[in-house]
Amino acid sequence: MKAIPWFVLVSYICLASLHYGLAEGAIHYYDFVLKETNFTRLCSTKSMLTVNDSFPGPEIHVQKGDTVFVNVHNQGKYGVTIHWHGVKQPRNPWSDGPENVTQCPIPAGTNFTQEINFSSEEGTLWWHAHSDWSRATVHGAIIIYPKNGTTYPYTEPYEEETIVLASWYKADVMEVITDALTTGADPNVSDAFTINGEPGDLYDCSNETTYRLAVEYGKTYLLRVINAILNEETFFGIAEHNLTLVGTDGAYVRPATVDYIVIAPGQTMDVLVTANQAPSYYYIAGSPFADSIAPFDNTTTTAIFEYKGNYTPPSTIPFPVLPLYNDSDAAATFTNKIRALNSAEHPVNVPKNITRQIYMTVSTNTLPCPNNSCSGNSNGDRLSASLNNISFDTPSISILQAYYWNLSKDVYTTDFPEKPPTFFDFTGNVDNITLYTNPGTKVIMLDFNETVEIVFQGTNLSAAENHPMHLHGFSFYLVGKNKGNFDNATDPLKYNLIDPPEVNTIGLPKNGWAAIRFYADNPGVWFMHCHLERHASWGMDTVLIVKNGGTEATSIRPPPSYMPPCSKS
What is the rounded average pLDDT for all residues in the chain? Predict the structure, then answer.
């Protein structure tokens, strides 16, 4: 158990200004050493890429407004990038991390120092690799405490613990995705899920190492839950204990007491749990939410909520009652409870007068293969995915560097469609609609400080499902969502403009829509994508470029003196 610290020992307090602006708080330094490490799970041992020999990786602890410098030493076998998920990085896309979007991979045998600038975030975020599927084993928590002189907007917990949900593959995860992209088929599903690196009692060779959370009767604990799973959303709960949601994606929410949460890959949730049951053992469990015909890992990871004291352990440990894997109504029941705190100390600022509206279909598709040689379907096509029927084609040069140095014509185009190229009954019968999509490296250009609304529209093409959509560089307000096709005349009348949650990742309902709003007040190049890794690998991505404002303070910072080299220049 980790008590909530008053300060972080690894930090170096700095009262001087940063090179590009005044530091509001402390400056912290971390070294991340990426290298292959042997781990044994599920009766077998494998070598896998980790940071500092740990799975999950090391935690970063800061206070609101701090700055962190992380020197990433790549001692692995291939190039890697690191992303600081949910950190807005004001004016500093250079350290955001998505491969060939804001930087090229850090080559093996080299290092790269990234600067992480915290601003309004407070709560729990996380970091992870952002190149191929290496984030399966390269990830960790970011804990952002309130500034000195302020506190949590709820009763301070007795202790806190981080809960990281992750995928476990017996195979080399990089070989899994490489094989899938080569054949055009669906990648193999994971062999297990883990809680803090351990699969739990329901898997072979695992019950001796099941993660245990030791608690004292009558005390309240803060659990910082992170979904680092590659391709499955998760129902999560603790047997016979209620959870009170108090934060998500680095922002506070109105407390909501629930039996379970549903958390998508990329999301973080802060929940309070009080140890108020008879002292015993109780299972903590995470099971998949997968409302699709696509293959998924239908297994359950467990940990043990273990009371301290003298008592006879139960012969049968109580198990939480979680919804069935395809219960989309249960998922919606939970997400509909999430509201921003909207207090004087933590107000919302929802854009009201929209100057830019984008309507974006989110689909799984196919692409043709030469001589029908792929294994994605019976026609010999490869599996693909798209936004507005454009399947993102990752360039070999960083888009940020191309934009900054005016090399755009050779790297990307600015004609991403802001509405679907073809309108049809998106969520209905699509038998007569082609599954083929169009590859391209197309971006959306936004003027500085535009007020933006994006309506994501799910479609019934191929294998429809819930999509966790994530935007780098911003938090945004989820102002509305529902099943079916979006109606621009009636649905905005039902938007929540009073206390919508401020998040960085949202679950787009299967065959439904979700509307988000934000101010384009962060100049830079920002990736937007589905956080299901197979969909991101297939092209369910695009890039938003926010132009500079009229001053130095509203413009992208100059690049650092060193950036990892690209394959072209």
Answer: 95
Q: 229-239 burial by CB neighbour count: b if 16+ within 10 A, else e? A: bbbbbbbbbbb
- Residue ranges in 365-499 assigned as alpha helix (H): 399-404
The pLDDT assigned to 43 comes to: 98
Residue 2 has pLDDT above 60, yes or no: no
> How would you classify the pairing of strands 220-227 and 159-168?
parallel
Between CA 356 and CA 374 the distance in angstroms is 40
pLDDT at 569 over 70: no
Write the CB contacts of 485 (distance below 8 Å, at least 6 apart in sequence).
425, 426, 427, 428, 457, 513
Residue 200: C-alpha distances to residues 135, 172, 237, 439 (Å): 21, 21, 14, 41
- For residues 183 and 101, the answer to whether their CB atoms sit within 8 Å is no
For residue 14, pLDDT beyond 90: no
Exposed, middle or buried: residue 555 (CB in 10 Å: 0-12, 13-18, 19+)? middle
Q: Does position 139 have pLDDT exceeding 90, yes or no?
A: yes
pLDDT value for 409: 79
Name, in order, each residue with C-beta under 8 angstroms of 77's C-beta and a sequence gap of 6 or more: 36, 49, 108
